[in-house]
Write a structure and sequence with these properties.
The chain has two domains: 3-180 and 401-408, Rossmann fold, CATH 3.40.50.1260; 193-382, 3-Layer(aba) Sandwich (Rossmann fold). The chain contains 16 helices and 17 strands. It has helices spanning 3-10, 43-57, 82-92, 105-112, 129-133, 136-143, 162-166, 177-191, 210-219, 228-236, 251-264, 311-323, 343-359, 370-377, 390-397, 403-408, and strands spanning 23-27, 34-35, 38-39, 61-65, 97-99, 119-122, 148-151, 173-175, 197-201, 222-225, 267-269, 273-277, 286-290, 305-309, 326-330, 362-366, 385-387. The strands form four sheets. Strands 5-6-4-1-7-8 form a six-stranded parallel sheet, with helices on both faces. A six-stranded parallel sheet has the order 11-10-9-15-16-17, with helices on both faces. The protein binds adenosine monophosphate.
Length: 413
């Protein structure tokens, strides 16, 4: 997103909105983890609650809508948002009335009878097939409920769904505080970063992050590659990697990314030493091996697998991080769920956290297992920004335009 778009979005934030007595459709992501009908983590509700409360306090009539699970266009009671209403009420300190369908005469009547500061929660948007189809008629039915649209669901913004984009084009559209905060942090990290810009990308496979890697080598000054995906890069360079996780059919792509990095002036940092084990299990017997040696006796055996980066790699990665003014992190450096193979992930996460605290490093992390990897290291709160949006964060790292964000810039005002 260009700085022009970002400043246009900033002018579309809800603190600029004259909200008194206006019916506001508030698209949230209330897709919280549930077990046996109980909510196991209210983080998403609490985070969205901030914008909802802000609007209600300004005298708006707030109509909250969200998806929940994958009911595939049908009413599925186990995926009802009804149990969320109480949790939302608790979070914002106001009553929340639940409406059992997100469109239709009941929803319209309730919306029209709201008083200033009232908050209602609509039933799961995905109970209607039109939501995931991005259907214009479904969006028009939602638009009948409200006068203003607010999107605070960055984590869903890679979806072309009716409540994310078609609806935004039917009403004056605004970004909620979570959406605005996320976009500002992401823009600072990749659109107009303070350089040098270093990215650390780990995780299981090259194939799931091919577009991320291809985009990053065009943008960053150094790219640290770790985790299982580094094995494919090593194999492409002729290193025998035993029974490590690898995508042998992706070695050409890995080689092409390395080549392109060279042309674009991006240095790729790959492991030059690794931690090997014969079992994918916590506490498995392991050894560290330098890959610089050409001694046959010291090669990786056929039944050994690479489960983490070694100490020399950690030091080289730290040195690269020390050159950076901005750092983007996605994915673990090794099999971090299994001690001791969390060592590289933990050491580097702590190093980034320390540099962020003491050196003003701008550190942005997100996507997939990254949040739980940073939790393992106990440093989630020390990064400049940690995005909890999985798919949307990755698509942003791929340089893609997110439909939910584009629609905010192309609204009906
Ligand atoms: P991703 O969702 O692509 O970020 O991948 C995260 C997963 O990659 C985690 O479950 C890690 O355990 C796994 N992983 C990272 N490094 C390795 C490795 N060297 N071998 C096997 N799995 C790994």
């Amino acid at each position: 997103m260009s700085s022009l778009s970002l400043s246009r979005l900033q002018s579309r934030q809800i603190d600029r909105l004259g909200a008194v007595s206006r019916r506001v459709f508030f698209r949230a992501d209330l897709n919280v983890p549930m077990m046996d009908g109980g909510i196991t983590d209210t983080t998403r509700i609490d985070r969205c609650g901030e914008g909802i409360r802000m609007l209600a306090e300004k005298g708006a009539r707030v109509i909250v809508a969200s998806h929940f699970g994958r009911p595939r266009g049908k009413r599925v009671e186990a995926m009802s948002l009804a149990p969320i209403a109480d949790a939302l009420a608790k979070s914002i300190g106001r009553p929340v009335r639940f409406v059992s369908d997100c469109i239709g005469s009941e929803a319209e009547n309730v919306a029209l009878s709201m008083a200033d500061g009232d908050v209602i929660l609509l039933e799961n948007l995905r109970f209607h097939p039109g939501e995931e189809q991005g259907d214009a008629d479904f969006a028009a039915s939602l638009a009948r409920l409200a006068e203003i649209y607010v999107n605070d669901a960055f984590s869903t913004s890679h979806r072309n769904h009716a409540s994310m984009q078609a609806l935004a084009r039917l009403l004056p559209a605004y970004a909620g505080p979570l959406m605005a905060g996320e976009l500002a942090a992401l823009a600072a990290a990749l659109e107009e970063p303070q350089r040098p810009l270093v990215a650390l990308v780990g995780g299981a496979k090259v194939s799931t992050k091919l577009d991320v890697l291809s985009h990053l080598v065009e943008k960053v000054d150094s790219l640290i590659v770790g985790g299982g995906m580094a094995n494919t890069f090593l194999l492409a360079r002729g290193v025998a990697i035993g029974s490590s996780l690898v995508e042998a059919d992706m070695t050409d792509k890995a080689a092409a990314i390395s080549r392109r990095a060279g042309e674009a002036g991006c240095s790729i940092i790959l492991p030059d030493d690794v931690v090997l084990a014969r079992e994918f299990a916590a506490g498995a017997a392991c050894r560290t091996l330098s890959l610089n040696t050409t001694e046959k006796a010291d090669a990786i055996s056929d039944d050994e697998m690479i489960l983490d980066a070694g100490p020399s790699t950690i030091e080289r990665a730290k040195a690269a991080i020390d050159t950076a003014r901005t750092l983007i992190w996605n994915g673990p450096m090794g099999a971090f769920e299994l001690e001791p193979f969390d060592a590289a992930t933990v050491a580097l996460a702590r190093h980034v956290a320390e540099r962020t605290r003491t050196n003003g490093l701008i550190s942005v992390a997100g996507g997939g297992d990254t949040v739980s990897a940073l939790n393992t290291a106990g440093v989630e709160g020390d990064f400049h920004y940690v995005s909890t949006a999985g798919g949307a964060f990755l698509e942003w790292m791929e340089g893609k335009t997110l439909p939910g964000v584009a629609a905010l810039l192309d609204d009906a005002s």
